[in-house]
Amino acid sequence: MKQKLVFFVGVAGTGKTTVARKLAKHIQAAFLDRDTVGGRFVEKMLEMNGLDVNDRDSEFYKKHLRDLEYDTTKDICIENLAAGQNVFMISPFTAELKNKAWIEEVLAAAGLNKQEVDVKVIAVTLGDMETQRKRIEQRQTERDNWKLEHWDDFKQRVQFVPEVNWDIPASSVLVFDNSGDLTNEKVESVYQFVMNES
Asked: What molecular functions are annotated in GO for this chain (predicted)?
């Protein structure tokens, strides 16, 4: 069976991490949430520059820190793939999904190719923004305070499905509506999607 490289993407509050955690109970994988990988370092650098440690929207963050977080997560992914591990990647990955060469570079850096690694993208969506707001409130992280205080500016289209320009089959992309309870049946459907090799 091929190694699995699974991307859980979507806007904040859709439940990317929750879906990935549920699936991780059924598939052993390195679990790489970009917020966890880079969070402490980004917060320290923002603080050192007199900026809000919860900021992920300013030009300073986008210019100096965004790629640092994503590239570090990518490097850890490459190391785990090279070591023979399945990998779950959790973050929006909007720019990376548009870059056709990005996934090829990841696999090549791990000394692998698409015949050896089954790449899947799970775009996690919600039916409405009220559910998004409730989920952001429930996770109670300081980083979300700005989002909640500036909700009209922040709220993002929760049905948004990122553009996937990678050279993978259409059957390797799943749009998963995470509205309502995340039942065992829903988790099983995601599991089957991941386990079926494209």
From this structure: ATP binding
According to DSSP, the residues that pair with 6 across neighbouring strands are 88, 120
User: Nearest to residue 9, comparing CAs of 101, 78, 80, 103?
Assistant: 103
- The token pair that represents 53 in the structure block: 């440690």
| CB-based contact 2:110 (threshold 8 Å) | no
Would you state the structure tokens that stand for residue 136, as one six-digit string? 């952001």
Q: Which of 36-45, 57-66, 95-104, 142-151 has the least mean pLDDT?
A: 142-151
C-alpha distance from residue 49 to each of 29, 54, 141, 150 (Å): 36, 13, 22, 22
Q: CB neighbours of 144 closer than 8 A, spacing ≥ 6?
A: 12, 54, 136, 137
User: pTM here?
Assistant: 0.86
Task: Please list the helix, strand and coil fractions of the chain in percent, rounded to the nearest 5, in that order.
Answer: 50, 15, 35
Helices (H) and strands (E) in the chain, counts: 10, 5
Q: Rounded CA gap, 26 and 19, in Å?
A: 12
